[in-house]
Amino acid sequence: MSDTTTESTESLTADSTSAVGTASAENPQNKPSIDALNQEADAALEEATQYANQARDAGDAGPDAKGVERRSLTAEERRELARKTAKKQSQLGLAELTKVYKSTIVIMQKIAVSDTNIASSAQRFLGLVDRTFYLLNRYGNLYQTQAEVDKVREILRDLVDTYCHEGAAAVAQAKLLADEAKLKVVDWLEPTYTTKTLDVEFGVKSSDTVRLIKGVQVWDQAILDFAALEFNDTASIGQIDTMRQRERRLFMALNIMCLRTIGGISKRRNSMAQAKAKPSKNEGDATGDAA
């Protein structure tokens, strides 16, 4: 998947830029609006890139720190780095979830998650996913061909689908096991969560994020359902921990793809800017003749 993604997000194409240039030349009245859109897109991409870099480098000591070589760390040092990374990403993620984007159309979504592990995934990664979908949908074809945008979006949506489907499968499995167990258990115990670990109103900018939020809440329910099985001696704590680890790996895969997507678009933008700033052969000849 990474090779295909790199090719889709990083390969430089001139078609999209030439199309914009042609439109401006044929209809000069469009130029101010095109320039304004490009400035708006560049600002959104720059902000998204800074956010992605902060999220990716959250385990480092600071903005000027070199990347940590994890293989050289002891087991305890790796655990401490993981805790530090999670804390920083949670802070960044919560700020993104509660951020109000100026003059942006959103769908307000209530995010209420009780399990600490599921809530941590949502708080750390959900904002980045939504920002990535928004960037791709709103400005992607300014930097990539439509085919490239569609391909990257499909990869992201497949990861969202996998996350949601596995959560739903876990709930279905828990129901099946519970139905069978209730035939043997007289006094079935029904545990509940005491509090919500994550409880925010989030202005969602992409319909794909709405699906992901529903998937998060399904995973939260799956953990509770398996906890009920454990209370009634039908499942083990180990099974619940395995589910939590699986949920984290699925969300992490989506998170990594989002980081790659933003990085790929940013690299394309930089290549386009360099190509635009480089003088053409004709300009160079004219300068030489004048000299």
Describe this structure in words.
The chain is mainly alpha-helical. The protein has one domain (2-61, 77-277). The chain has helices at 2-10, 15-26, 31-56, 75-97, 116-143, 146-182, 207-231, 237-277, 281-290, and strands at residues 107-113, 198-204. The chain has a two-stranded antiparallel sheet. Helix 6 (146-182) packs parallel to helix 7. The protein is elongated, with a radius of gyration of 24 Å. The protein starts with a helix and ends with a helix. The model is unreliable at 1-26, 60-66 and 286-291 (pLDDT under 50).
Query: Strands of the biggest beta sheet: in what spatial order?
Result: 1-2
Number of helices: 9
Question: Low-confidence parts, pLDDT < 50 over ≥5 residues?
Answer: 1-26, 60-66, 286-291
Q: What would you call the shape? A: elongated
Offer a quick outline of the entry:
This protein is mainly alpha-helical. It has helices at residues 2-10, 15-26, 31-56, 75-97, 116-143, 146-182, 207-231, 237-277, 281-290; strands spanning 107-113, 198-204. It has one domain (2-61, 77-277).
Secondary-structure map:
Elements: H1 2-10, H2 15-26, H3 31-56, H4 75-97, E1 107-113, H5 116-143, H6 146-182, E2 198-204, H7 207-231, H8 237-277, H9 281-290
Antiparallel strand pairs: 1-2
Helix pairs in contact: 1-8, 3-4, 3-5, 3-8, 4-5, 5-6, 5-7, 5-8, 6-7, 6-8, 7-8
Task: Tag the structure with descriptive keywords.
single chain, 291 residues, mainly alpha, two-stranded antiparallel ribbon, 9 helices, 73% helix, elongated, disordered N terminus
